[in-house]
Amino acid sequence: NRVWYLAARPDGFPAPSDFDLRTEEVPEPAAGQVLVRNDVMSVDPAMRGRMNDVKSYVAPFQLGAPLEGGAVGTVVASQDPSVKVGDSVLHGLGWREYALLPAAHVRVVDTAAAPASAYLGVLGMPGLTAYAGLLDVARMKPEETVFVSGAAGAVGSIVGQIARLRGARLVIGSAGSASKVEYLTKELGFDAAFNYRDGDIRGQLKRLAPDGIDVYFDNVGGEQLEEALFRMNLHGRIAICGAISQYNTPDAKGIRNLSLLISKRLTMQGFLVLDHWSRKDAFMEEMAQWLRDGKVRADETFVDGIENAVDGFLGMLKGANTGKMIIRLSS
Ligand code: NDP
């Protein structure tokens, strides 16, 4: 059983030497436990935050302890009547080939209805983040102009598509390459998109949203947030979902232009998906229908092999993914 450990706390952008892949015995389940062979695992930006030794909404990863994260696998041994051998289950012990858990900590998922990886993306935590963030936190209404940053990623790509399906007048996205910009407009149905690496973010937003922005779904923080503030309409709403441009910058500076919140009567609200679990059933039902109808496209970028999980994680932090980054452990 190969398992990834945190070997050192990253200083700035993580280095491969901060991680250590160890080989261990495959454990045996005791009463009430299940043994799961992981098929796919998630790498998420929030994992970078847990590598710092700081108090937050989840405990930091411990030095010299295994990493954790979302995974879907197949039950290979069960000592609990509620979970059967052969079931596909979603759980929180990724970063390893075999996971030993209490049966109460796994959720059986239907891999006939959607591939296992979908439960880590469009039908999982990132999908619910997009849904609750856009509809409940930012309270997007039909005919509004929506701007989403990180738009070609797991959360952002779903935000833009939900905005379109819920009747936004204009959906604008930003991403970090020309090919992602083309993907947003040609494949995902965004009305407009720009590459934030081209600079002049203020000018790009002015050109693409001449009548201003009503809702900004912020995945990145930093300069794009500062410039979106300039383009916001009166009474606009900003959902602060993430700040990935700051995660690897320990001495990140504050946000400029915040006084625009006053003159424009803006609402800016941070949120965590874990507070929106009550929306899961409504979300699953609507999203599953959109997927069946071909109205939402959920692309994934796969990296194969447990030994390449760190490469996949670092790649995701640098933008190697289009849609959800998934580590595939067996196919
Ligand atoms: P993504 O799939 O979007 O992957 C991360 C992306 O971030 C990369 O593909 C890259 O795309 C982009 N990126 C990297 N560096 C920068 C930078 N300096 N400036 C702008 N973009 C950058 O990840 P997720 O969809 O899983 O997460 C998106 C955001 O949502 C993150 O900030 C994450 O922390 C947050 N989040 C928050 C949750 C909550 O409960 N509040 C829950 C889930 C996610 P590119 O090529 O475009 O640069």
From TrEMBL:
Pfam families: ADH_N_2, ADH_zinc_N. Residues 14-327 form the Enoyl reductase (ER) domain. It comes from the Bacteria. Its EC number is 1.-.-.-. InterPro entries: ADH-like_C (IPR013149), ADH_N_2 (IPR041694), ER (IPR020843), GroES-like_sf (IPR011032), MDR_fam (IPR045010), NAD(P)-bd_dom_sf (IPR036291). Keywords: Oxidoreductase. It is an enzyme of class 1 (oxidoreductase). GO terms for molecular function: oxidoreductase activity. This is NADP-dependent oxidoreductase. It comes from Dactylosporangium vinaceum. The lineage of its organism: Bacteria, Bacillati, Actinomycetota, Actinomycetes, Micromonosporales.
